[in-house]
Structures are given as C-alpha cells and as structure tokens.
C-alpha cells in the first residue's frame, strides 16, 4: 500500500518522500546532482555515495539504495564550452 508523505531536509534542501510500495523502484528518471568545487570534493562524494552501490559512467553512480547521483565539477560547463574543440572534446571523451 501507499504510505503517508514525509518531508525531509538534506543539506538545507527540502524534499517530500512517498512510499510507493514494492511496485515502484528507483530508476535513472530521477537523480540527484552533487555540484563540487574541487577534485577532493568529487572524490569524497563519489567514495561515500558509491559505497555499497555501483559506479555507472560519466559522473553517474548508484548509491546503496539504487538511487542515481550525478557528481559534477562546477567547472564542467566552462570546460565543455571551451572554444578549442580539442580541449572540449577531451572532456567529453574522459567521461566514457
């Protein structure tokens, strides 16, 4: 059966969760994004969130509950939009 909605706060962000029962599983249609300022932050979140879960690719991982996360360096949009196609191309290839 359906449970009652529960409000939670994670890192100052409000969320409402609902127990949809065994028929509704996590999938990639819903994911959380972790914006990281430094490589150390990227590594730390990646290590903690993927523990008991699994890395996917291109900065995506699944945590131990099966929830998808995108761990993204804040510099990524700048790197992807570099006018030098060789530089921006390397960024894309690194994720695969």
Features:
3 helices; 28% strand; 96 residues; 4-stranded mixed beta sheet; two-stranded antiparallel ribbon; alpha+beta; 6 strands
Describe this structure in words.
The longest helix is centred in the middle third of the chain and has 12 residues, at 39-50. The protein has three helices and six strands, in the order βββαβββαα. It has 96 residues and is of the alpha+beta class. It has helices spanning 39-50, 76-80, 85-94; strands spanning 6-10, 13-17, 31-36, 54-55, 60-62, 68-73.
Mean pLDDT: 80
- The computed structural class is alpha+beta
User: What's the order of the H and E elements?
Assistant: EEEHEEEHH
Distance between the termini: 40 Å
Q: Calculate Rg over CA atoms.
A: 16 Å
Fold blueprint:
Blueprint lengths: L5 E5 L2 E5 L13 E6 L2 H12 L3 E2 L4 E3 L5 E6 L2 H5 L4 H10 L2
Parallel strand pairs: 3-6
Antiparallel strand pairs: 1-2, 4-5, 5-6
In short:
With 96 residues, the protein is an alpha+beta fold.
